[in-house]
Design a protein that fits this description.
Elements (H helix, E strand, L loop, with lengths): L16 H15 L7 H9 L4 H43 L3 H16 L3 E8 L4 E8 L4 H4 L2 E3 L3 H9 L3 E3 L12 H10 L3 E9 L2 E10 L7 H63 L4 H12 L2 E6 L4 E5 L8 H10 L3 E3 L2 E8 L2 E9 L6 H40 L10 H10 L8 E7 L5 H14 L3 E5 L2 E7 L27 H16 L4 E8 L5 H17 L6 E3 L5 H6 L5 H19 L3 H10 L4 H8 L3 H15 L6 H17 L1
Parallel strand pairs: 15-16
Antiparallel strand pairs: 1-2, 1-6, 2-3, 4-5, 5-6, 7-8, 7-11, 9-10, 10-11, 12-14, 12-15, 13-14
Helix pairs in contact: 1-2, 1-3, 2-3, 3-4, 3-8, 4-8, 8-9, 8-11, 9-11, 17-21, 18-19, 19-20
Length: 666
Amino acid sequence: MGRVNDASSPRPPLDNPVAAALRALLGLLAEGAPAERFAAAAGEVRSGGGDPAELAFVEDATRVALDVRRTLGQHRRREAELTALFDTAGDLAALRDLDAVLRAIVRRARTLLGTDVAYLTLNDPVAGDTFMRVTDGSVSAAFQQLRLGMGEGLGGLVAQTARPYASSDYGADGRFKHTAAIDRGVGEEGLRGILGVPLRVGTRVIGVLYAADRAVRAFAPDAVALLSSLADHAAVAIDGARLLEETRAALVELGGANETIRAHSEAMRLATETHDRLTDLVLRGGDVGDLARDVAGLLGGGIVVHDADGTELARVRADPLAAPVRGVADSRTGGRAVSVDGVWVWAVMAGPELLGSVALTGRPGLTDSERRLFERAGLVTALLLLLRRSIAEAEDRVRGELLNDLLTPEGAGRVHDGASRRIRARRLGLDLSRPQAVLVLQCDPAARGRVASEAARRARAARGLSGVHEGLVVMVVPAERRGAVPAQRPGAAPAERPAATPAERPGDLARSLAAELGLALGTPVTVGAAGPADRPGALPAVYAEALRCVEALHTLGRPGQGAALAELGFLGVLLGDRADVSGYVERVLGPVIAYDAQRGTELVRTLDAYFAHGASLSKAKDALHVHVNTVVQRLDRIRRLLGDDWNAPAAALELQLALRLYRLTS
C-alpha cells in the first residue's frame, strides 16, 4: 500500500484501517483533544494487523497531527496573549491613579505568564538605584523592601542596560552580580526562575517588570516577548499616570497660588479701603470714637482705646476693659501688635512717648494683613491723639486767656472790650449772654495738672471755660438764675416750694464735682461755687465769692467737699462780707414773707414772737393777743412752708438770724 501523500496512489477505501485512523486524527484535532489520545490511531492499526508500511504512514500522520495541534495551540495562546495585552492596554489607559496603575500591571503580568510572583521596581535618579515599588504574590517583607544598585543582581543589570534578562535558577546563576541583601531577599522569598524586562519611555528606562517562579523555570522567548510587550504598555501608562499626577500637583499648586494671589489681592483691597477710610476720617475731623467704630467694623471685633493714664477714650462693641498694661509693655518693646489672653494690643506711640493703647477683642486669630490693618489703625490713633492734644493745648491757652480776662476786674488802666470778649467766647462755644456760675477747685499741688485736665474736659462738655487762674483751677459754666423762691428744705411741700433743678444750682454743681473728681483722681478736691453772674462784668466778684467759699470750707474742716457760699448760712454771710444779706433773708425766710404779702397774714410776726418768748405757745399768744389755737395753726402753716425741720436747732438759729436781719433791713 502506497503513502497517502503520493498523488498517484489510489484513494483508500473508507473501510480501510488507515483511512479510519486518519479520520480519527482529524476528529481529535477538531475537538482539541489532549496529545496522549493521538497515539491511539496508530495503536488501532497495529492491533488490526496492518502491514508495516500502513503503520508507518499512520505514525507519520500522527506526528503531523500533533505538529498541527501544537501550532494551533500556539496560535490560540498568542491570540489570548494579544487579547490580554489589548485588554491590559485598555485597563491601563482607563486608570488615573499611579498606585492603581502599578498594581494592575503587576497583577496582569503574573496572570499572563502564570508565575508565582510578579513585581515591579522603579528607578530613583537621585539615589542612582532601583527600588521595589509593587509586588503581587510576595510573602517576604525583606524582599518587598529591596533596593538594587545599578548593575546589581538581575534587576539592576536590566535597569542599567535596558535589556531583558532571564535566569532559570537565579541563585546558581553566575552571570549576575550577587549581593548579600539581594540574595537574602530572593532566598527568603524562595525565587529561582526570574525574568526581568525594562520599562522604557523612549530611550529612558524608568524601571523593571519581573515575573518569577519558586521553581526552576526556563523562560521561552515568547514569554520574554509577552512580558516585554506588557512592559511597553505599562511604561506608557506609568508615564501617563505620573504626568497626570504631576499635572494634578501643578493644578493644586496653581490653585494655591491663585488663592494666595486672591488673598493678597483681597488684603490689598482691604488695605486700600482702610487707608481711604482712615484718611477720610482724619480729613473730615473725626475723633477717636469714629476711628474705633470704623476699625471695629473692618475687623469684626470690639475696640477699646485708652490714653496713657489708662482712661478709656472710646469703646465700640466691647465690654469694659482695663488698660492692658502687660500688652502695652510688650507691644512697646517689640514695636508690633501683640496678643495677650486673646486680646490684641497696640501701644500708641509718638516717638518714645506713650500716648495710649488700642485693644481688639473678639478676634483672637488675626491674619497678617488684618494685624497690619490693626497696627495702621493704631498709627492713625496716635495721629488723632496728637491732633487732639495740640488742639486742646491751643484751645486751653485761648480759654485760659479768656478766663483770666473774664475774672480780672477792671482798674489800674485795664479796660475790657465787651464786644471782643463776646466774639472770643462765642468761638469757644461759650454764650456770655447766659448766667454763668464760677467754681474754684483746690487740691494738692501734685494733682493740679490732672485736676485741670479733667476740669477742662468737663467744662468743654458743658460749653464752659476752664483753666488755671492765680494758681487755682477755675471753671466758668452756664447756670440759670433761680427765681425768687428759695431752695427747698427737706420735707417742704412741693406745691408751695418749687425748687430749681440741680444743674441750676452752683452748690449742687460744686458738691457733685468734688465727689466725682475725688473718686476719679484719688485725691481730695475742694470746690467752692458762686453765682450765677447775669453779665460778664459780674464774674470777678462772683469768682471772689467762690474763692471765699473754698477758704470757708477749709476753715470749717470740710476739705474735699463742695458748696456755694450762700449755703453756709450765716457763716456765708459773715465770710461773704455781708455782700448778700437780702439774699440770705430771702433764702431762709422768703416763703413766709411771700405768704404774708400775698394773703395779709402775720406769719413773720408770729414766728418772731414765738422765738422771742423762748418757743412758748402761751407767751406767744399773749404777746400777739390771739388764741393759742391760732398760734398753733400759724406755726403749722410755717411748717408747711419751711419744712418739717424748721424748728430744729440749726434751722431755728438760721431763722432767728434771718428775722433779725429782716427787721434791720425792712
